[in-house]
Design goal:
heterodimer, A: mainly alpha, ABC transporter involved in vitamin B12 uptake, BtuC, 79% helix, B: 281 residues, Rossmann fold, six-stranded mixed β-sheet, three-stranded antiparallel β-sheet
Amino acid sequence: MSYRFDWNLVTDFRVMWQFEFMRNAFEAGTVIAIVAGIIGYFVVLRRSAFATHALGHVGFSGAAGAVFLGLNPVIGLLAFTMSGATGMALLGRRAATRDIEIGTVLAFMLGLGLLFLSLYKGFATEAYGILFGEIEGISNAAVVLTLEASVVVIAIVLVVYRRLLFASLDEDVAEAKGLPMAGLGLLFMLLLAVAISIAVQVIGVLLIFALMVTPAGIAVRLTKSPFGAIVVAVLVAVFSVWLGLFVAFFEGDLPYPPSFFIVSSSFFLYVGVRVAQAAYGRFLQRGRGDVHPSPSATHGSA
Amino acid sequence: MSARPYVEPVVPIGPEPSDEPSVIRADHLEVGYRDRVIWSDASFEVRRGEFVAVIGPNGAGKTTLFRMMLGLQRPLRGTLSVLGRSPRRGNPLIGYVPQRHSIDIDTHIDCESFVRLGVSGTRWGPGLARRAEHEAAAAALESVGATDLAHACVGTLSGGELQRIFLAEAMIGHPEMLLLDEPLSNLDLRRSRDLVALVSRLVRSRNVTTLLVAHDINPLIQCLDKVIYIANGRMATGSPDTVLTSETLSALYGVPVEVLRDSRNNLVIVGGEESGGGEHG
């Protein structure tokens, strides 16, 4: 069952959207990409990429446990990522000192997830879905849940936006100015936990970086304004999801997974931006007659 | 680069009877942690508009003094009053520059947004496109001579530029008091003097009481009203003239130190720097 790609994109979308599973995939995928772009900016700003990675793994064991108990995997994901996030926030606010603790816990969590899955009889497809995402298998109920969770996350970010930005960028001054640093740290980790839990449906715990870190990583290279960076991160994440779904649908007879194309789009966008900036930096240097390559040149062009 | 050499007119040294009200008053202060007293029995007074250097060897408890004024730490004993009341966290009348030598090179934020957080960072809501905040940030950048850095990335600035941006961030709320922790520690002598001249200009033109932590007094001597010395668990305060003597400094650093005067009546410290300025701590 393959559909012919047409250069008229309107026709293509009409073809795709006649299927409920594709409509669900686009709806949930878009909402999740928006949340991932917003939260991802703070992940990059706070250098919390490792915590994001770890929370995904924690979520894996939660989802596996829920599957084992016959519950909705999202319930297990939320329960585990939120308690994991609380634990990490309580450990302390400097991520650099937490690598070993987080690493230890994440390995244990992955093992626990493995145990749950081996206890559960028909494990293969469920595990695959949790690890790599199943965007084309999102149910109507899951779309509604995703939308509700996303509205809550975005609303909270809007309320604390400037405080969270201040606390993330300039910890010591923010503390002296009276911001509740521990509270903001915990709040951010909980928002991250919810964002990860819903994003797992699209991209899976192992590929979560493609939506939570890469788009924001691209955005901070393209704009120096925090708000602008969030907008760019959201656009990149949404574009990656749409392109991934699009290519996976039209690519032919072989069942390539959409997750692969989503990850590929964000990856090649990132590489493209890095290469373009390096080339631009070299171009500027040549213009100045600067013979010595300086490492700051590429940064200056950002 | 808008840092141009600026020679600050020499402020007359000597006990200057001031009738300005006192803004910081410490009475038999003792500071430390449960198992360790850092310094004790410190009594001093800072009047409004004074430029005060806090000097001492590494680990003497200079930053601790700031943390107490900011309400981040409580004294073990004694009383401290800052701007007429006991210290509280989040006092908007205090501008603070913590000890920070660099910022992550990957911090892709323009200086204007960074400085703006000094006033908007404690507010609720998304607060996009507030005209008054942009104007305040522009004014703060101008006050430190960094208008041309507004759209530069904080991650790419030099040490001197970065300290001016931090100063702008502290100045943006029109504070009555500035606490600057080691702003000079990784600047060369010329850049140190430029920054001190800038701070001194702000102190004089805006009557902002300013405490500056340093372990090298040389770039500061000419502009100071008062020196707070912390060493060996004790504190000595007074005008530079009375405190910057061979006897006091020898006691402070625990090694023989000589204080000399050059022909322009500048103070030159010989011997103290090996122990005090040897590392960027």
